[in-house]
């Protein structure tokens, strides 16, 4: 097994154990998603001596964690509560999409990242 895969599986197992142990403490009762976030914060602590390639790997892992968090958040949304405002949803979604697109294009043009 490659070194990278071993480190990834080790971090994944440690995050699971950390999150499960935090959610089982009766005094805290922290949800598992918050436990995963706290574990990610602990991984980014400056007192850990991490090399540059490991930092790159952890940044990719953080991006994956963000996608996982968005997925979990989407699974928690109750569609029945959104139906009463369904008539205005397309208008709001279109406005937010235009605003986000314009904000991205303005910020990309200021930093020289525009393609």
Describe this structure in words.
By secondary structure, the chain is an all-alpha fold. 75% of the residues lie in helices and 0% in strands. The chain has 5 helices and no strands. Helix 1 (3-24) crosses helix 2. The mean pLDDT is 77.
Notable features of this structure?
5 helices; 115 residues; 75% helix; mainly alpha
What portion of residues is helical? over 70%
| Unreliable segments of 5+ consecutive residues | none
- Helix segment tally: 5
Kindly estimate the percentage of residues that lie in beta strands according to DSSP. under 5%
Radius of gyration: 19 Å
Q: What's the N-to-C terminus distance? A: 39 Å
Judging from the principal axes of the Cα atoms, what is the shape?
A: flat
Task: Give a count of the beta strands, DSSP E runs of length 2 or more.
Answer: 0
How confident is the prediction overall: mean pLDDT? 77
Structural class category? mainly alpha
The profile of the biggest β sheet is: none
Topology:
Blueprint: H1 3-24, H2 32-43, H3 52-76, H4 79-82, H5 89-111
Helix pairs in contact: 1-2, 2-3
Quick take:
The protein has five helices and no strands.
């Amino acid at each position: 097994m490659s070194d990278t895969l071993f480190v990834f599986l080790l971090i994944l197992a440690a995050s699971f154990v950390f999150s499960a142990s935090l959610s089982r403490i009766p005094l805290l009762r922290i949800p598992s998603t918050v436990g995963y976030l706290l574990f990610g914060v602990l991984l980014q602590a400056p007192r850990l001596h991490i090399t540059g390639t490991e930092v790159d790997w952890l940044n990719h892992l953080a991006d994956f964690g963000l996608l996982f968090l968005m997925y979990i958040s989407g699974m928690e949304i109750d569609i029945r509560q959104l139906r009463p405002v369904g008539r205005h949803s397309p208008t709001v979604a279109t406005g937010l999409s235009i605003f986000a697109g314009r904000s991205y294009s303005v910020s990309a043009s200021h930093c020289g990242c525009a393609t």
